[in-house]
Amino acid sequence: MNRRSVIIIGAGPAGLTAARVLAGAGLADVLVLERAPEPGGLPRFAGHPGWGMEDFHRLLRGPAYARLLAAAARGAEVRCGASVVGLLPGGIVEVAGPAGIEQLAARAVLVATGIRETPRAARLVPGTRPWGVTTTGAFQEMVYRGGMRPFRRPVIVGGEWVGFSALLAARHGGIRPAALIEEGARTAAPRALAWAAGRLFGVPVLTGTRLVEIRGAARVSAVVVQGADGRREIGCDGVIFSGLFRPESGLAEAVAAIDPATGGPAIDNLFRLSDPAFFAAGNVIRGAERGAVAAAEGRQAAACILRALAGALPAAEITVRAGGALRYATPQRVAAEGGWLRFSGRPSRAAVRTGRARLRLLAEGETLAERMVRIVPEGGLSLRVPVARLAGARTLRLVLE
Amino acid sequence: MDAPPPAPGAGFDIAVIGAGVVGCAIFREFVLAGARTVLVEAAADILEGASKANSAILHTGFDAEPGSLEAACIGAGNRRYREIHHRLGLPLEPCGALVLAWSEAERERLGAIRARAGANGVEGVRVLSAEEVRAREPALAAEVCGAAWVAGEAIIDPWQAPLAYAVQGLANGGALWRDAAVTGGRREGGGWRLETAAGAVAARVVVNCAGLRGDLVEAIARPSPFSIRPRRGEFLVFDKRAARLARAILLPIPTARTKGVVLTRTVFGNLLVGPTAEEQPERSFAPTTAAGMAALLAAGRRVLPALAGEEITAAYAGLRPASEHKDYVIEALPAAGWITVGAIRSTGLSAALGIAGHVRGLHEAHFGAFRALPAPAWPAVPALAESASRPWRSAAPGEIVCHCEQVTAGEIRAACAGPLAAGTLGGLKRRTRVMMGRCQGFYCTRRVLELACARLPGLAEPLAARGAA
Question: What ipTM did this prediction achieve?
Answer without folding.
Answer: 0.93
